[in-house]
């Protein structure tokens, strides 16, 4: 549940490279016995970001995160920049299920803001975020320091893009690897910038507390609600009211954040009593360099 950021357990084998089992090769004894349920083993592998393979998937995932505002940003050059920064910094990873040439299910990548502030691929995106900020915001100094340059600051944008049904326990590995790859004190990393702040961009959603647990597949209903559902004879269970990130692992990052900025999507239609689906909004979370490691550790402990 959004109100309880506990990641489901996953075996270590899910994070190692194994060969997938095709559906047609599986034993169909279950079907012969009248069961319509078939089990498929899916193994997840981690890869470096690959501009030659990952660009289409990155564009699709960017549009997903931009939600209603997907037409306001040209995702093609932004996707190219995200992947090229991954190669330049030797940082960032993707998760795939069918070899390196397959599309990623998710990825965590970083873009150096100071280096690319005027880059035509990034500037429209930064301008878009800045346009959502109040006149006084710690994010404004980092994203648009022209008014009061923050010379000592070196922020980086973290893009955490993934399919919503990706197993959550895989995500701490992506963040852990990213921090290791961006550690300038590590061997061979002396040229990596020492970023002072992380800006984690994404989206969230808001619940009024009247939505039913059935049909919302972003999060599973909590164990407590599952028990209540059984007792009530299968009736729908309302979800808890509140605002939550679409990626539940980001709740751990929120706990160590210096600032959390949320903004309504510019092109979203006004909501009324007849509106379908949950209300969505954009998010930018500001985290000081050293504190992100603690959030990642909390993610990993929640998976055990």
Automatic annotation (TrEMBL):
<comment type="similarity">
    <text>Belongs to the BCP1 family.</text>
</comment>
<feature type="region of interest" description="Disordered">
    <location>
        <begin position="1"/>
        <end position="36"/>
    </location>
</feature>
<protein>
    <recommendedName>
        <fullName>Protein BCP1</fullName>
    </recommendedName>
</protein>
<dbReference type="InterPro" id="IPR025602">
    <property type="entry name" value="BCP1_family"/>
</dbReference>
<dbReference type="GO" id="GO:0015031">
    <property type="term" value="P:protein transport"/>
</dbReference>
<keyword id="KW-0653">Protein transport</keyword>
<keyword id="KW-0539">Nucleus</keyword>
<dbReference type="Pfam" id="PF13862">
    <property type="entry name" value="BCCIP"/>
</dbReference>
<comment type="function">
    <text>Involved in nuclear export, actin cytoskeleton organization and vesicular transport.</text>
</comment>
<dbReference type="GO" id="GO:0005634">
    <property type="term" value="C:nucleus"/>
</dbReference>
<keyword id="KW-0813">Transport</keyword>
């Amino acid at each position: 549940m959004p109100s309880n950021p506990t990641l489901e357990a996953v075996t270590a084998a899910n994070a190692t490279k194994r060969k997938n089992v095709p559906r047609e090769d599986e034993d169909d004894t279950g079907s012969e016995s009248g069961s319509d349920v078939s089990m498929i083993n899916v193994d997840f592998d981690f890869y470096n970001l690959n501009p030659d393979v990952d660009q289409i998937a990155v564009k699709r995932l960017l549009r997903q995160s931009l939600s209603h505002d997907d037409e306001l940003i040209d995702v093609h050059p932004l996707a190219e920049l995200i992947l090229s920064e991954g190669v330049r910094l030797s940082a960032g990873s993707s998760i795939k299920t069918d070899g390196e040439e397959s599309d990623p299910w998710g990825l965590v990548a970083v873009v150096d803001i100071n280096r690319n502030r005027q880059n035509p691929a990034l500037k429209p995106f930064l301008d878009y975020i800045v346009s959502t900020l109040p006149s006084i915001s710690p994010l404004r100094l980092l994203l648009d320091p022209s008014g009061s340059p923050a010379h000592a600051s070196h922020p980086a944008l973290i893009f955490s893009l993934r399919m919503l049904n990706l197993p959550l326990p895989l995500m701490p590995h992506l963040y852990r690897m990213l921090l290791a790859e961006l550690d300038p004190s590590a061997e061979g990393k002396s040229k990596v910038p020492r970023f002072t702040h992380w800006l984690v961009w994404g989206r969230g959603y808001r619940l009024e507390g009247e939505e039913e647990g059935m049909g919302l597949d972003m999060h599973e209903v909590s164990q407590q609600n599952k028990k209540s559902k059984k007792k009530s004879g299968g009736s729908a269970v309302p979800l808890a009211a509140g605002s939550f990130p679409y990626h539940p692992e980001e709740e751990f990052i929120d706990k160590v954040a210096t600032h959390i900025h949320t903004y309504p999507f510019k092109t979203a239609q006004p909501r009324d009593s007849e509106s379908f689906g949950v209300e969505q909004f954009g998010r930018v979370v500001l985290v000081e360099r050293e504190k992100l490691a603690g959030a990642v550790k909390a993610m990993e402990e929640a998976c055990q």
